Structure formats: C-alpha cells, structure tokens
Amino acid sequence: MYFPLLKWLKDRWQDLKDLALTEVSLEKFEIEAGIADFAKITANLRAEPTQRRKIRDRFNPHTITLLAALNQFIDEAKNKLPEGYSDLVVIADNLDRIVPVIQEDGRSNHDHIFLDRNEQLKALHCHLIYTVPISMLYSHRATNLRDAFGSDAQVLPMIMVRTPDNEIYEPGLNKVKEVIQKRIHRIDPELNLVPGVFDEEETLKNLCLMSGGHVRELLLLIRDAVKRSDSLPITAKSVLRSLSLARDVYRKAVDDNQWQVLARVSQSKTINNNDLERSLLFNRCLLEYRYWEGEEVKRWYDVHPLIKGIEEFQQALANLQNLQSD
C-alpha cells in the first residue's frame, strides 16, 4: 500500500542526498525501511531550517507527481477500510502554529501556504481539515479563505472556565478536568485525578483556571509540572513553579506598547481588528470565548490568565482605571 509514496521518494532521493539532508539509503525498497526513512527525513528537516528554501525550490517542480502518489496511497487505503466505512478524514494539525513571516513579495508565508497553494491543499482524495492561524481569520484574508475553500472556517474557542464577569464557570472547569482525566485513563484507567495525579483539588483547580481553557496550554503546564515532581501526585509547589515559568514566557512575548491594549481588552472583553491585536490572538496573549444565547452565538475576549499576574499588566490596568476615574 505504501509503494506509490516510496517510489516517489526513491525518485527524489538524489535531490535529498545532494542537499546532505540524510545518510539513509533506499537501496532496500521495503515498506518498513521506507517508513523509518520518512521519519529520519522529517527529523533532519527540522534540524536544518536553513535548508527549507532549497528543499522547496528543488521539490516544487515535482508537486504534481507527489499529489498523484499521495492520492494513489489514499485510494488504496480506502479500498482496505473496515466494513461500513467508505471514506477517510485527514487532519493536518498544528498549521495554526506557523509563525508569520513576511516574504520578499510583501506577503506572508500564511498567504503562500493557505491561499496560493489552496488548490493543492484541496487536491487529495479524502475529507480534509486544516488548522489555520487565527490571525488570518481576523484579517482581510478571511474572505479570500472562504472563496478558496468554499466554506466558512470553524473557530474552536477556548473552554470557558470563567464568565465575562470573572466568575468561575463550573461546567467549563469540569470539562477541562474531564480532558485531563481522559488523557490519564489512556495510561491507567484506575488512576484518579485527586489524589492520584494531583495532591489536592485546589492544585488541580488552579492549574485548570490558569490554562484559560486552552487545551494545548493545559497540557504544556501539566507536562512541565510532572517534570518538576519526583513522583505523583503533582504538588501545589510544582504547579506554581510551572505557572511562574510560563508567565515569564508570556511577559517576553508582549511588547511595551501592547500592555495598555491588554489592559483595555481585560475590561471591555472586546478586540479591535488590527494587526497588533491579531498578533496577540496568534500568540495566545488574548483568548477568544464563545457561548450560545438563544439562537445567537456570543463571543468575548480576555487576557490570558497567566498575563494577569505580570507586574507590567497590572500597572497598565491601574493606569487605565485611573484615567477612567478622572
């Protein structure tokens, strides 16, 4: 079933060797070896970011043949689906994490990937889900995306752990805990969150609230807290250390002219559609929440909970409140 892809890779092998990307060989044209070689190539690409332009220039003329090989692979896979299944869904995740870079033509790499290459992105013989940077959906390119892909993008908001009035939202908080519980049960179905994974309910609650309901942030915080624990359960001290280090990362992500913007959003729960605030959405300094009110979707925005503990933010908020009281 992997033959079309392996054949395409073998045909391109001299290009890879010329770029000194890998020392692996495809002399033994076997499935197991091919899969391992794909993994080695991926690792080497990540280790050599300066080679990416050379790689693109070398492989661009072969895009059509790559798509053909992928579609052969997909068609064969669909023929081997279990009874009752007729199609495949491919999720290309983490594309929303691609850092925007302005190219020589003045357009961003996001434009080149999602707009210029949209026909190629849609060319595979299966259902496709691509994650896209949220900053694109809050820009003039939003309509271009809709035209290119034929539908509106679906925004996955944060899990609401607090209301716009800053009250703890128990249903959302419980859902975040459920996310952790399901992850833990993959390893040990008998392990409880408290006291098996966390020493106290308050420790678990604090971590969930400080994640802002952002699942990726939640898992990063848990992973770091585990690293700082000699054994389970994770203690409040380990969680506080993880939160402190994560908070420092967010401090570095905010420019001096952005603190006042964050302070305003924390009060108004709204954003302005401009490059500055789109960039704060992209790097998760601002988080989007949605909820249903009757038949209408309501949306609101807030500063990441970790940022609220940063001195520069607190000073900007105090300055804003003083201006409002004058």
* Mean pLDDT metric: 87
In which order are the strands of the major sheet placed?
A: 1-2
How would you sum up the global shape?
Answer: globular
Biggest β-sheet description = 2 strands, parallel
Secondary structure: helix percent = 40-55%
Strand fraction equals 5-15%
Q: What structural class is derived from the secondary structure elements? A: mainly alpha
Q: What sequence of helices (H) and strands (E) makes up the elements?
A: HHHHHEHHEHHHHHHHHHEEH
**How many beta strands in the DSSP annotation?**
4
Distance between the termini: 72 Å
Radius of gyration in whole Å, from Cα? 24 Å
Number of helices: 17
Ranges with pLDDT <50 over ≥5 residues?
A: 24-29
